[in-house]
Amino acid sequence: MGEMTQEDLAKRVGVARQTIIAIEKGKYNPSVALAIKIARVFGVTVEEVFTLNGDESSSEQGGAPGAQS
Amino acid sequence: MKPLSTRTLVIAYIVYTAVVVVLAITVSQKFYLALIALAFGRPVLRELRVLADRDEWLSLVSYRSSHIAFLAAMLIAGLIFMWTGIVNLGEPPYEVSLILLITLFVKFAALQLMGRTRERAGRAIAWIMGGGWMLFVAGHGLQWVTLIEGAPFIGIMVCAFLSRRWPRITGIVISLAGVASIIAFVDFPLEYDRLIVPFLLSFPLMLSGALLILGDRAEEDDEDTVPAAEH
């Protein structure tokens, strides 16, 4: 999981690399469909990949932490 | 429909350009006008879902940049319109009025079509057409002549009001008013300096009428209903 590049993730979910970068930087909130696709790539739930900003019940803040360049 | 690949599209562009240039050289230079499709062809194909070369983020960026360009164009056209027509009490340049009014109407109509049911969109367009043209006529002074000239537009507004109860009948009346305005005021072939009436009266009325005729009551029921969340 940690070795996956942005390019790999982009290909697997069918979007451009810029889209993955925008999601990682928090510039863009993906659609539900794309969020589910990303979560499935990592074999986790959507809530494990994405969290609401200011959501006290979560330990992580936004973005797609599984995607690394 | 299967989306076109970028390679297929590039080949189509090259062939299209070659055909247009040959026709322009051999038949008439007016064929050069067809080259404008090269600038707007791809965006139109994307809107028609024929071309799917952008994902959701790239589409959003494209839409935002287009919206900024729209605002800039409207700001410039609006300033020229206000400066020449209101500040200097003259006649705004025809081309500027055409671009400003048609673009604003397209924005309004698209907003209605995308955000409302067909029936509500048709009614809103009828209100805007009747009210807008009535204001334009009233701008020439409040006299009996104004009332007579504005009578058809008052009729459109009455139809818009009655369309809540009789959408199909009023839709037919509004459509026929659009067709009648073409027969009465529009000459073919269309000249670019006489596009205001067809594009800002006839076609919008026909669109409004068609939406009211096609409108579905069942569709309206869905609008105010939010599915209950499951816990």
Defining traits:
heterodimer, A: 69 residues, mainly alpha, 434 Repressor (Amino-terminal Domain), 4 helices, 45% helix, 0% strand, globular, disordered C terminus, B: 231 residues, 9 helices, 74% helix
Architecture (CATH level 2) name of the domain at 6-49 in chain A: Orthogonal Bundle
Low-confidence stretches of chain A: 58-69
Overall structural class of chain B, as computed from helix and strand content, comes to mainly alpha
Number of helices of chain A: 4
**Main sheet: strands, sense, barrel of chain B:** none
- Which strand-content bin applies to the residues of chain B? under 5%
Strand and helix order of chain B: HHHHHHHHH
Order of helices and strands of chain A: HHHH
N/C terminus separation of chain B: 38 Å
- Could you name the ranges of chain B where pLDDT drops below 50 across 5 or more consecutive residues? none
Overall average pLDDT of chain B? 86
Task: Tell me, briefly, the overall form of chain B.
Answer: globular
Q: Radius of gyration of chain B in whole Å, from Cα?
A: 22 Å
Description:
The complex is a heterodimer of chains A (69) and B (231). With 69 residues, chain A is mainly α. Chain A has a domain at 6-49: lambda repressor-like DNA-binding domains (434 Repressor (Amino-terminal Domain)). Helix content of chain A is 45%, strand content 0%. Chain A is built from 4 helices and no strands. In chain A, helix 1 (6-13) crosses helix 2. The longest helix of chain A has 11 residues, at 32-42. The termini of chain A are close together. Chain B is mostly helical. Helices cover 74% and strands 0% of the residues of chain B. Chain B has helices at residues 6-26, 36-47, 56-87, 94-115, 118-138, 144-162, 167-185, 196-214, 217-223. In chain B, helix 5 (118-138) packs antiparallel against helix 8 (196-214). Chain A binds chain B through residues 14-16, 18-19, 22-23, 28, 30-31, 34, and chain B through 54-58, 60.
